[in-house]
Each structure stands twice: as C-alpha cells, then as structure tokens.
Write a structure and sequence with these properties.
By secondary structure, the chain is an alpha+beta fold. Helix content is 42%, strand content 22%. Strands 3-2-1-5-4 form a five-stranded antiparallel beta sheet, with helices on both faces.
Length: 142
C-alpha cells in the first residue's frame, strides 16, 4: 500500500486545533501516523483524496478542512497537501508554486519549466519533473 504524507500548507485565520505548517502526518493503508498535531475534524475530509492517491489515479492533492466558525468574517481553515511519500519533494514544490502564482505573475520562463515538469510527470519521469519544478520555482522567486 502506498504511503501518503499530509501536511498543512496554508492556514487561513487561526486553526482552533493549533495546527502549524510544521505539523505532518502520514497514512499507510488504514493507519494514521501523526508526526505532529492532528485535527479530528480535518481528518474526516481527507478519505476521498487519500483513496484517489492510494489508487494511483493521482500522486498529490490539496484538501481544505471545512473551517471551524459560523462567522464568515472570522474564517479559519487549513489547506492540506497530500502526496505519495516517494514523490513528496515534487509534491511540495508543486504546492509552493501554485501558492506563489496566486500572488505573483508567472514569468514565461517559469511557465515553460512548469510545462516541462508536467510533461515529465505524464511520462512517469518524476525525478526529471522535480528538476524542472525546482527550476520553475527558482525562476518564479527571482
């Protein structure tokens, strides 16, 4: 069974469970192994994505917990990254790239590297995909 790593990559507002960006856990089969804090409410929203990843129909996903308030002006929720353990570095780079492109303009060179990374993923060459995503991130940050 594929091991899935999960970690918060964005916290909007304040998490009532006190999750931080450093918390991480993994799922292997039906077993949950926390490496930090885990939120019971958030865990309930992960199974569909975990099953997709374990079936290998994808190798990463983002999932949001539902938030813990009825007052919309005080939104608080956590966005989680889920990914195959053997592709975890690539998953984190893709997640960071997506987060940054929501805030920054995507330069053409960065876009080209991202497209090359996607092509490498389609060809199951994940080491090459990681190299291209790293280059895309470097271009985006410069």
């Amino acid at each position: 069974m594929i091991t899935i790593y999960i970690k918060p990559v964005e916290i909007i507002g304040a998490c009532p469970a006190n999750l931080s960006l450093e918390d991480e856990f993994r799922i292997q089969g039906m077993n949950l192994a926390p490496l930090g804090k885990v939120c019971f409410l958030a865990i309930g929203h992960l199974p569909p994505s975990v099953w997709q990843l374990q079936s290998e129909s994808r190798f990463f996903a983002h999932v949001s917990c539902p938030g813990c308030t009825t007052q919309l002006e005080n939104e608080n929720r956590v966005i989680f990254l889920l990914g195959h353990a053997d592709k975890w570095e690539l998953c984190q780079m893709i997640s960071e790239y997506r987060r940054l492109t929501r805030q920054l303009f995507e330069p053409e060179m960065a876009r080209n590297f991202r497209l090359e990374a996607m092509q490498a993923q389609a060809e199951n060459d994940f080491s090459q995909a990681a190299l291209k995503m790293k280059a895309a991130l470097d271009e985006l940050k410069n």
